[in-house]
Write a structure and sequence with these properties.
This protein is of the alpha+beta class. The protein has helices at residues 17-25, 54-63, 105-112, 139-149, and strands at residues 5-11, 30-35, 45-51, 66-67, 70-71, 73-76, 93-99, 118-125, 130-136, 162-165. It is built from 4 helices and 10 strands.
Length: 200
Amino acid sequence: AQSRHLYVGGIPFEYSRNDIEAHFRRYGDITNIKILPTKPGRTGQAAFIDMETIAQAAAALEHGTMMGNRHLRVDFNQTAPGQGRREAEPSRDLYVCDIPLPTREEDLHQRFSQYGRVDTIRIVPRDSFVIAFVAMASVKEAESCIRHLNDTPLFQGDKPMKVSFSLTKPAAAKRPPFDDRHTSAPPAQRPRHIDPSVHH
């Protein structure tokens, strides 16, 4: 029987928890991830992943079976692992998806810095879109970004991006080469690529 709970096996060892989350977020919202302890002799990692809905889990099962050049084993898991549903707790770490191509770190920084100081940005390109992990300086500033930027387009005419707290702490990234000057130009006034040194 179908379920919103998935078992995923054969995940390449070089993929981190963040990478696994990013891969399956393509098919919907994730409410819980549990990476299973690796047993000796195994050729890959395994995880329990809870999607928001059965339809999202079914989409992940149908379309999410390739990670890099590796085939994954994706099956419905009838019993919710662990304590069941878990929402991402408020933190300064944000997960951003449905970002259009091409998008640079500078573009995201200019938008997110309207609501606080951006510490790091990590962009993960996909085939037809971009996802990003954005670390703000504080939880309050991250909450402000979600309140103002979730379900809004990065650029006029684009699909609205999704901004939420990250279920996992993003891997360490170099501090982007930005200063902390805030900008206030709305998306409608912003071209695809912007020189961060130009003030509006």
